[in-house]
User: Which sequence fits this backbone?
């Protein structure tokens, strides 16, 4: 309205802004497409053309570490925002994150309640970290009847062979169980453990996939 009054009525800019209660600095403001912004926009378009899976973060790291530009991340991100004059379909760097699909169990199987020791054992892995940052794994064996911890094997790596050896050591003094319950971890569904269970006539009961 202020521009129309100045153009059509030949009213001075100051009077038009005062009448409309409009800032004179806002009236005179013009968006500036400086050379640096043009350069950033061109780089972003080139990077997206080569690989559409890149987002803002990867584009920024490429310009910083590979091309050695000193722009801060806010300077580059400002080019991609909705109010930027460079914002168009070529600069849509906010990638949609595909939601994780969760398994749904309609009717969860009821857990068997053991009536004596060595009827059902449960085995599972736990993880922890040492003070120096190294990760360790713990293989746990529990009797479901009285929640007695029968064994804990600790190491940096616990493959299926170590699982079988630990179970053999426990069976040597405790006796063998009728059923061993476990989740669907790679060490617990592999052929080595299945062969061991058939040899000892022990049933391996895996829980249902999904969140237990």
Assistant:
């Amino acid at each position: 309205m202020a521009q129309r009054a100045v153009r059509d009525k030949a009213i001075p800019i100051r009077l038009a802004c005062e009448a409309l209660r409009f800032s004179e600095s806002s009236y005179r403001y013009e968006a500036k497409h400086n050379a640096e912004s043009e350069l950033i926009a061109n780089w972003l378009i080139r990077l997206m053309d080569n690989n559409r899976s890149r987002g803002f973060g990867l584009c920024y790291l490429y310009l910083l570490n590979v091309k050695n530009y000193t722009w801060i991340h806010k300077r580059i991100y400002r080019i991609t925002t909705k109010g930027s004059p460079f914002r168009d379909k070529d600069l849509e760097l906010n990638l949609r994150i595909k939601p994780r699909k969760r398994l749904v169990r309609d009717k969860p199987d009821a857990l068997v309640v053991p009536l004596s020791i060595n009827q059902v054992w449960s085995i599972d892995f736990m993880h922890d970290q040492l003070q120096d940052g190294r990760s360790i794994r713990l293989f746990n064996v529990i009797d479901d009847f009285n929640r007695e911890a029968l064994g804990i094997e600790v190491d940096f790596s616990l493959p299926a062979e170590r699982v079988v050896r630990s179970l053999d050591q426990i069976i040597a003094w405790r006796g063998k169980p009728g059923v061993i319950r476990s989740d669907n971890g790679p060490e617990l569904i592999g052929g080595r453990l299945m062969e061991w269970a058939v040899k000892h006539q022990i049933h391996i009961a895996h829980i249902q996939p999904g969140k237990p």
In short: The chain has nine helices and five strands. Residues 86 and 211 are 45 Å apart (CA to CA). The chain has a mean pLDDT of 78.
